[in-house]
Amino acid sequence: MNQQESIQCAVFGASGYSGAELVWLLHNHPHFSLSYGFTSGAREAESITALYPQLAGRCELVLQPWHPDLLPRLPQQVRVVFLALPHEASAGLAPELIAAGLVVFDLSGAFRLGDPLQHHQCYGFQQPVLEQPVPYGLAEFTELTGNESLIAVPGCYPTAAALALRPVMPFLTDDCTPIVNAVSGVSGAGRKAALHTSFCEVSLQAYGVAEHRHQPEIAQSVGHDVVFVPHLGNFKRGILATIYVQLKDGVNETDVSDAFHNCYEDKQLVRIVSTPPKLQQVVGTPFCDIYFKLHGRQLILSVAIDNLLKGAAAQAVQLANQYLGFAPQTGLLPGPGAVV
Ligand SMILES: NC(=O)C1=CN([C@@H]2O[C@H](COP(=O)(O)OP(=O)(O)OC[C@H]3O[C@@H](n4cnc5c(N)ncnc54)[C@H](OP(=O)(O)O)[C@@H]3O)[C@@H](O)[C@H]2O)C=CC1
Ligand SMILES: CC(=O)N[C@@H](CCC(=O)OP(=O)(O)O)C(=O)O
C-alpha cells in the first residue's frame, strides 16, 4: 500500500456515541479520508455539530440518512466502512456491503461469536452465514492479511477482560474459573434514551448477572469459561474491571511480570502499570492499562479502558491500520481526544 494514498471510508451509525468517536478519529487520521457519516433513515441530513456542538469549527461533516438506494454507488466512493449500529442492523447490512466489495469493520456483536447457536441465545436473531470466516479482532492478538472482507471488533468488556487475562491463562490451576467484575460508564449503553440510563435512575448496580452476552464472548476470547458480572456506574465513560484467578503452584510474580511484558513490550496501546489504574488515565485515550498483584496463590488484575475508544472506535481504527499495513497506533497517538 502506498503510504501517501488516502483511504476513503464511511461510518454507519455516525450520530451514535461510538460512531461519533469514529468520525472524529477518522477526520484526524493521516491516511483515511471520511467520505460519509450515515445515520438511520429516520433522520434528516444535518451537520454532526447539531448533535455534538463540541465539534463546531473542528469537524463539520454533514451526516446523511442511510437509504439502501445509496448502496450501488458506495463502492465507487469508499473502500472501507465502519459499522457502529445496533447488532441486528449490522447483521442485515454487513453481507450487502461485503457483496458490494467493501471492507467492513463491525463494532456490533453480530459476528463476534463463532457458535451460531450461542449467538442466537445471546442476541435473539440468526447470525448471517457468510462464505469467509470472520476474524475476531482483538487487535493485539490479531494478524490481518488484508484479504478479509469483514472483521468483528470485540465488545468493550471483552476487550478489557481478554487483554488482562490472555497472557496469564497458561498459569491458571486446572479448576480455576476466572472471575471478572467490571464497571462501565453509561455511554456503554449508547445514545438512545432509556429509563435505566436516565440521570435520576443510574446508581452503581450490578446487572446481567451470569447472563450477559459478553460472558460467552470473553470465554471464547480467552479459551476458558469465566464468571462475569458487569455493573453500571454513575459516570460517563470508561470501564474498570477487577479480575481474580488462581495460580498453579510454583508460578511467582516474576513469571507473571515476564508474561505481561513479553506479550505487550512491542504493543504501544497496552501499558503495564505499577499502581492500580484510574479511569481518568485512560478516558479519552486508546490505551488499555493493566495492573497485577499476587495475594498468595490468587492473582488480582485491575484493567482500565475507555469503552468508546479502546473498547470500540479506537480498536476499530487500530484494526483498520493493521489491515492496511499502517502501524497499529497510527492516528491514535497522540490522539485527537474524545467527543462524547
Ligand atoms: N457504546 C459502547 O461503549 C460500545 C458500543 N459498541 C457497539 O457499537 C454499536 C453502536 O453502539 P453505540 O454507539 O453505543 O449506539 P448508539 O445508540 O449511540 O448509536 C446507534 C447508531 O446507529 C444508528 N442506527 C440505529 N438503527 C439503525 C438502523 N436500523 N439502520 C441504520 N442506522 C441505525 C443510529 O442512528 P440514529 O441516530 O439516526 O438513530 C445511531 O447512529 C452497537 O452495536 C454497540 O453494541 C461496541 C463497543 C462499545
Ligand atoms: C453500560 C452498558 O449498558 N453497556 C453495554 C455493553 C456495551 C456495548 O455496547 O456492547 P458491545 O460491546 O457488545 O457492543 C451492555 O451491557 O449492554
TrEMBL record:
Q: Which GO terms describe its molecular function?
A: N-acetyl-gamma-glutamyl-phosphate reductase activity; NAD binding; NADP+ binding
Spell out the subcellular localization from the entry.
Cytoplasm
Give yes or no: UniProt keyword Protein biosynthesis.
Answer: no
What positions constitute the catalytic site? C156
**GO CC, any one term:** cytoplasm
**Which domain of life does the protein's organism represent?**
Bacteria
> Would I find Amino-acid biosynthesis among this entry's keywords?
yes
Q: Which biological process annotations from GO are given for this protein?
A: L-arginine biosynthetic process
Enzyme nomenclature, EC number: 1.2.1.38
Question: What pathway is this protein said to act in by its record?
Answer: Amino-acid biosynthesis; L-arginine biosynthesis; N(2)-acetyl-L-ornithine from L-glutamate: step 3/4
| InterPro entries named in the record | AGPR (IPR050085), AGPR_AS (IPR023013), AGPR_dimerisation_dom (IPR058924), AGPR_type-1 (IPR000706), NAD(P)-bd_dom_sf (IPR036291), Semialdehyde_DH_NAD-bd (IPR000534)
Catalytic activity, reaction form: N-acetyl-L-glutamate 5-semialdehyde + phosphate + NADP(+) = N-acetyl-L-glutamyl 5-phosphate + NADPH + H(+)
Question: Coiled-coil segments, which residues?
Answer: none
Gene3D superfamilies linked: Dihydrodipicolinate Reductase, domain 2, NAD(P)-binding Rossmann-like Domain
Q: Any idea where the Semialdehyde dehydrogenase NAD-binding domain is?
A: 8-148
Q: Which UniProt keywords apply?
A: Amino-acid biosynthesis, Arginine biosynthesis, Cytoplasm, NADP, Oxidoreductase
Q: Tell me, what's a Pfam family for it?
A: Semialdhyde_dhC_1
Q: Which HAMAP family match?
A: ArgC_type1
Record-linked NCBIfam families: argC (TIGR01850)
Q: Give the protein's biological function.
A: Catalyzes the NADPH-dependent reduction of N-acetyl-5-glutamyl phosphate to yield N-acetyl-L-glutamate 5-semialdehyde.
In the record, the note on similarity to other proteins reads: Belongs to the NAGSA dehydrogenase family. Type 1 subfamily.
What is the recorded name of this protein?
N-acetyl-gamma-glutamyl-phosphate reductase
Q: In which organism is this protein found?
A: Pseudidiomarina insulisalsae
Q: Gene encoding this polypeptide?
A: argC
